[in-house]
Design a protein that fits this description.
The protein is mostly helical and about 140 residues long. A two-stranded antiparallel sheet has the order 1-2.
């Protein structure tokens, strides 16, 4: 195997890296999970470590499993203003419960990490868009 450094840095196999991703020199950014500043090693790095990446996404999946059916029901019934009477009732209840859960999740995120909190979802989504991770939004 060639021991010469690669032009873009990183491993000899260039695992999951596009040209230019390992050039370095990116401004420090906050980890969404712990809110500590870190220097990214690749252009699209959002989290300071794999453990925080996993924690964020595991929690997101658990929350999403609960929220998605409620949000879809609320949306389809226009928060309980359209559809048959039983659908309107389901829509109202789903909307209220989804809003309650989102407030609880927000409060939990703000209280996390000994009061440092986690990144707000709007800021997290903006970072993903800025880094080209959500091009379909």
């Amino acid at each position: 195997m060639n021991d010469a450094p690669l032009d873009q840095g990183g491993s000899q196999k260039r695992h999951n890296r596009l040209p230019g991703q390992n050039v370095g020199g990116w401004a420090p950014r906050h980890c969404p999970e712990c809110m500590k500043l870190f220097e990214p090693k690749v252009a699209n790095q959002l989290f300071c470590c794999p453990k925080h990446n996993s924690a964020w996404h595991d929690r997101s999946k658990k929350r999403g499993v609960v929220l998605i059916p409620l949000v879809i029901t609320a949306r389809v019934t226009r928060n309980g203003t359209q559809g048959k009477p039983e659908a309107r009732e389901a829509g109202r209840r789903a909307s209220n419960r989804a809003n309650q859960l989102m407030r609880e999740y927000r409060d939990d995120d703000r209280a996390a990490n000994e009061g440092r909190g986690r990144m707000e979802w709007t800021e997290y989504t903006l970072w993903r868009i800025k880094l080209g991770l959500d091009l379909n939004i």
